[in-house]
Specification:
With about 700 residues, this protein is α+β, with helices and mostly antiparallel strands. It is about 40% helix and about 15% strand. The strands form four sheets. The protein has a six-stranded antiparallel sheet with strand order 4-5-1-11-10-12, with helices on one face. Strands 6-7-8-9-13-14 form a six-stranded antiparallel sheet. A five-stranded parallel sheet has the order 17-16-15-18-19.
Amino acid sequence: MRWLVGWSSTAAGAARIGSAGAVGYDGETLHPVGSQLLWGDPDPLWAVGDWRPDEVRVVKADAQNRIAVLGICGASDDELRRGLFTARGGALRHLTSWPGSYTAVVQVGRRITVCGDLAGARPVFHTPWAGGTAYATAALPLADLIEANLDFAHLAAVLAAPDVPAALRDTTPYEGVRRIPPGHALVLRAGVREIVGYEPVASLAVAAPPADPDRAVDAVRDALVEAVRTRLSAPRHVPDLDPGPVPGMGPAERRARRGMPVPGIGADLSGGPASGTLALLAAGLPGRPGTLLGHGTGAGERLLAVTFNDLAVGGREAELERAGTLAANPRLHHVVVAGGEETLPYADLDGPLTDEPGPSLVLAARHRARFAAGSADHFTGHGARQVLDAHPARLADLLMDRRRRHLVRPVAALARADGSVMVPARVYGAARRHARTPYRAGLEALAERLMRRRFDEPKGAVGASLAALTWAGPGPAAGWLTGEALAEVSVLLQGAADRSGTAAQRPGDHRARAALARYAADFRVLEQAAEIRSQRLHAPFLDNQVVRACRDLPEALRVQPGARAAILRAVLEGAGVNDLPPGWGAPSHASSAAAARTGLRVAADSLVDLFVSPLLADAGLVEARVLRSAVRSAAAGDPLPLDGLADLVSLELWLRRLLSRRGTCWTGTPAPSRAVPSGIQPRKGALASGA
């Protein structure tokens, strides 16, 4: 886990800080464990973790004007210096417009600016501390710094309404630690904080301007190619040297057993369009995209393509065949990782503590098995669905813009999937109601549903689309929460509705941004939970410039059936890749739900034991007997929301790991400063004071 941390002090606080760094409440000197100081007092900044040398860059104009960029950034030092001079006047958007995935921190005198990303995969957190403000790209270090307790209202909202920003607000699992929204920056002036947006948000006051589809697809291609090229241009890194031979094992087997990736660059190759696009782009760009000479295969120019073959759950034979056809490219070296029951969801629930909880915790071992066979720099297609596909609520946007004819094909596809002639009328009616419903009314409706425990939704693809044609909906785990927890979230939503007034927002754009933020946050959890030493996962679809290019795609294009595959096919054709296998981009008929249900059945006994005395029950969020009954019912095949069970299991695992940790992120204090110092006190029968 890698993060940066720093703070901005008031004038009085700055006078108390000595040359050794930050000063705590009792005059002790504080600094993060395992850190490197990027710049010092009075507003210090540290980089913490196993950052590579090329991932940490600091460019100075003078002693009081400098910029730090942490991560993969395609800007040269001269471009960073020009960006610093531009930022002195208050302009921020250009700091987020370089290719790559990074966090930029600018210091101009006593003004500190920290830019978050558009997706939410690189968030920024802040908290009041020592009369000023501390900030970091991880929440746990700040929680340790202020010895924060758990924010039970936030945990209830994560389970009851995870896709509703009004319920989550700017809170985190830690009381007092706040998150800046995606598309915003944190500006600190002598300890005083301000959150400013750098990205325009579409409004329903003015119809969306018409966009040329061909030009928009070309922009997506250029952004993706530049994102991949930026990673290929970065210095290559060789993992720690192999300590020696093991009888009966080859080099690849030794690396996998010891958790070491292959040197060089690789990519997922699942057979789907997203991972296939990145693998073919990386293999086709000029240069040396693959392994280093003398390491791995010895081919030097071949990119390692990794395909996961789930032997426990079938149904993806067509995708595997397409992956094999793509891997016939002479610039790819294909590796197939076979996974049995040991890689099913819920099979291995041991893992590291992540910064925040997320449903990916139950899948970490499954992904780790694939990543362990990958390269030191590994491309993944995560995020493509969220940035390219159309959220069903975008149908309401089309109605608001009087583009009814563009609803014909997506509604007809839903009708064919459902087999009912009533589908077009139902979908059109739901989209029309959504377009005419104010945001405030949508929040109030969800608050009422939670209070009255109304969670029944229509089934199937049509049911999911109808349920998404609202401003806000309950999460899949909401039905298992206690009445007190649901009432807590309902009160939060009512308060947000009262504050929202009649703010103009486009419903489809709003829902799509919220879904992307939730996915990006979970991908960040996956990165930390499935981390392989010396490996970097790259998700170019979550880069700022790629997200911007995808947002400029016309809604009429993205709502059409098969739009994602068509867009990525056009991207590859524009990059000179034309020989795609038959059926490329076809939706998979096998669902991840089959693997989740199989894993749940295999691990049912261990999950029941996990919920004998759950911390979730101590927090007043659920009842233990309800959870045990739900696990048994789902393992028996009852039609329960499996995503909701994954949310509950993941949160329980995260709470246990958090409370069992012994260390802290800080040193130099008389006593260890850590989050949740007194554990979880049983909390039942009353609403939280902060509701």
